[in-house]
Amino acid sequence: MDRETAALRLDLKGLKCPLPALHTRRALERAAPGTVILVECTDPMAVIDIPHLVQQAGHALEAQDRDGAVIAFRIRKSG
């Protein structure tokens, strides 16, 4: 099983600040090192909160994208 297949997906669409960041933090705390977490949310503050959370915790923000109202993040937990 490759890491892409093993990616954890978080559908946080519709949640408002600070819930997307809190759910992302909890998922990172529980994930094994090297795990990829794909986060999708609609809260505009997530473009600030989630990259900040990832950087502060020492993880890698591998990608960030926007499709309409949906903001997607690809995060790899540090090992």
TrEMBL record:
Pfam families: TusA. Residues 10-34 form the UPF0033 domain. PROSITE patterns: UPF0033. InterPro entries: TusA-like (IPR001455), TusA-like_sf (IPR036868). Gene3D superfamilies: TusA-like domain (3.30.110.40). Belongs to the sulfur carrier protein TusA family. This is Sulfurtransferase TusA family protein.
